[in-house]
Specification:
single chain, eight-stranded mixed beta sheet, 32% strand
């Protein structure tokens, strides 16, 4: 579903994508028969990364979930850095949340065409292994923060994580939250974040599983005051999730810096 609104020049084109470590899944049976692809490198992995990188090149800012930060299972490729190169992004950041040394480094990632003021890594409450990346753009009168999340599956941890994210977002005049929330739109946690946090979800289409979507667990949430130019779920099948893209009109008080010396971490 595509939502169209009036478009302005002062816009930002965003995408969120859980890439499943570049291991394609096309059916429920793949979770069993191809589960080994989550543990060891395979010949299709680099091809999938190249395909994903080319697709990402059309966006200004990308939030990634389930990327590997460079371990045995990815052929020791930092997938965020690799995708930044393929998509010509000068700025990239990665956040290992579950670091199993040489075996696996489960991470979130950020790709940006604009120079961030800073990128902050924060651990989420609940069971270990979950975190968020907060990317700040503080060049205008007011700061924009883009928060990349990948939340837990368990209900108790989820409730604490939703509260934590809402508290973080409240520190900024403008915050955009995107990623894999592992929660349906009608859940108490999502409804609370939207109403108490002052956010809106402009894309209602299902995102999971990618081959036959029947759940919506991926989101790009923007403040109620922000004008959304367009939003849609992208029909792109190199993961068990479908990506979401959104173009938002930024307030005049928010300014973004152009390309400069690359930053990474």
């Amino acid at each position: 579903m595509v939502i169209e609104h009036k478009q302005t020049e002062h816009t930002l084109n965003l995408l969120t994508y859980n890439i499943q470590a570049a291991s394609q899944t096309t059916s429920y049976s793949d979770y069993v028969t191809k589960s080994w692809k989550q543990l060891i490198p395979h010949r299709h992995q680099l091809h999938n990364l190249n395909e994903i990188g080319e697709m990402l090149g059309q966006y200004d800012f990308v939030g990634l979930q389930e990327v590997d930060a460079g371990s045995f299972r990815s052929g020791f490729i930092n997938q965020t850095r690799y995708l930044a190169g393929k998509g010509n992004f000068p700025f990239w950041f990665t956040q290992p949340n579950r670091d199993y040394g040489h075996l696996a480094k489960h991470s979130n990632g950020v790709l940006s065409r604009y120079h961030p003021s800073r990128c902050i890594h924060r651990k989420l409450p609940g069971m270990p292994g979950r975190g968020i990346l907060v990317t700040e753009f503080a060049y205008g009168v007011e700061t924009l923060a883009i928060i990349v999340v990948h939340l837990a599956l368990g209900g108790r941890s989820q409730r604490r994580q939703f509260d934590f994210i809402r508290e973080i977002a409240q520190h900024y005049p403008y915050a955009i939250i995107l990623g894999d929330f592992n929660k349906e739109p009608d859940s108490k946690e999502m409804l609370s974040l939207l109403t108490r946090g002052g956010f809106k979800d402009c894309c209602e289409t299902w995102t999971h599983p990618s081959w036959k979507p029947r759940r919506k667990i991926d989101y790009i949430l923007v403040p109620q005051s922000m004008e959304v130019c367009s939003s849609e779920v992208v029909d792109y099948h190199l993961s068990d999730h479908l990506p979401i893209q959104l173009r938002v009109s930024l307030p005049e008080s928010v300014q973004l810096e152009g390309r400069a010396e690359s930053m990474h971490g």
